[in-house]
Fold:
Amino acid sequence: MRFYGGKAPVNKILMKGNEAFGEGAIRAGCRFFFGYPITPQSELPHYLAWRLPEVGGLYLQAESEIAAINMVYGAAAAGVRVMTSSSSPGISLMMEGISYIACAELPCVIVNIMRGGPGLGNIAPSQADYFQAVKGGGHGDYRLLVLAPASVQEVLDLVGLAFDLADKYRNPVMVVGDGILGQMMEAVELGPAPEVKLPPKPWATTGTAGRKTRNIINSLYIEPEELEKVNLRLQAKYRQMAEEEKRWEDYRMEDAELVLAAFGMVARIAKAVVDRLRAEGIPAGLVRPITLYPFPDGAFERAAGKARAFLTVEMNAGQMVEDVRLAVCGRRPVYFYGRTGGMLTTVAEVAARAREIWEGLK
Amino acid sequence: MKDEGGRRKAAVSWRRTRGLTDTPFHYCPGCSHGVIHRLVAEVLDELGVLEKTVGICPVGCAVFAYNYFNCDMIEAAHGRAPAVATGVKRVLPDRVVFTYQGDGDLAAIGTAEIVHAAARSERFTTIFVNNAVYGMTGGQMAPTTLLGQKTTTTPAGREVSVAGFPLKVAELMATLDGAVYVARVSVHSPKHILQAKRAIREAFKVQLDGLGFALVEVLSACPTNWGLAPPDALRWVEEKMIPVYPLGKFKVPEEIS
Ligand SMILES: Cc1ncc(C[n+]2csc(CCOP(=O)(O)OP(=O)(O)O)c2C)c(N)n1
Ligand code: SF4
Structure:
């Protein structure tokens, strides 16, 4: 473990977000990483390039994101915990492979440290890949589990959860962050490395030795009846995820009448906004989705009871706001405030918009 | 040969290989894919490695190869079999891993994956089926289509000014340090089939010995999309393809030569 100077409190070390993604994976028993360089996630492969060999694992730089995700497909088919990471344009290139992995029901973890888009965009922080992550992205009716940590500590925790969920559901899991989360350093509590029990994978293509039947990893079902059956099974799995895996954080929600919604780093800005509004006597609160898929719609449904209005804040032109509107279902107005192109939302800007909305409700 | 009752007994000259399942091939009459499958299957069986083999099939006419090879199989996205094979072999270095790919799969959409897998000298074996055409999608031009050859997307024949030159995969791969075994064979006659089998066996031996990446290019007939009767298609391989794609071993590691 590298130690970043200063007097760290016992058991706490300073760590960059991108490195926490890497360390979180190693602590979860992941020993294989395939990726292709892209900013602003570079510290993640840099970290794993020395850390994985140290624990007997493999870091392999692929010739493209297309190759990387297909290496992940092969490694997952062979039965191990495997991860790739990239940033927006690279994730776009992976989409065909992700769709295959989802249909073949292979577990893996994909990290997207989102950057400004569309196109080549820029390397500044962004949340503009929300739709791509939660609505599909690749072709066909499939879903990813999508997690959105908001601190370096939470990165460590959620990457571990991501591997567990991937195995539990035999489904790819995406963990999204942005350039701020990736690049900033925070104190994290590592604690002793957890004991990882890898679940048995009797379906893995490891050679038939010791087995009576052949294992086949596939996403081709030429007969419509068969493919529909596969789709119905996948949909049932997604419904189970929706029942069991919704996660979110309520912040000062007890009596909130103006409810902010934000995920990832923007949620931290939103918390500061809530505190400022509260200090001014405005009963504000925040719902922070931790799973973006399945979306914690129940939290918003419940909030709509007391709330008079919602304000969704994102670093994009308004994506998660559509899911908030679906959850609130017309019972209360849902407003949006966002910046795009890598521009940050500031506490002052968001607070000003919130006050405006509050005044309008009087 | 006589049996106990003194009757003439036929020598067994054909036996189903354990390397193939009982599923009948779906290939067109006269298609060489079936012969090539059989050779690969026989080699895996004879080397005694079927139970530790993982095969990767392409997108192309051989997309259902997972129904035929009697070992664990993975179906890859179009062109990506070498990346998938890389993932498998890096996780399971003691297993035998092969990809089976057509010329659209390997030499067009998947060029980057095969070149880099070879450059990294991944320890798997690639069987590359060159039939000078896209079979599955309806006989379009492939990178390997001959100059002047008519396909559904070169109705007047492949013309250099529009579609450039055929890609010579074996020659290209032989320039890569990581590709340690490269051969081009054909299966249009019994003699050539035996030679092809020897090359396929060598390519798997190279893998078993951990020597590096091995590729066998197999010239293959596609009577359906060439618009030829099966015997004419075999003659076309001999007369038209071999002059452009000469047979031979382009690279053989000292250890097995
Ligand atoms: C990404 C993608 N692009 C295109 C296709 C359509 N497609 C299926 S098979 C094929 C060509 C196969 O030709 P080849 O590799 O030469 O194999 P053959 O059928 O001749 O054996 C194409 C273009 C696809 N399945 N996926
Ligand atoms: S279309 Fe050509 S390559 Fe495909 S099965 Fe028929 S003969 Fe073989």
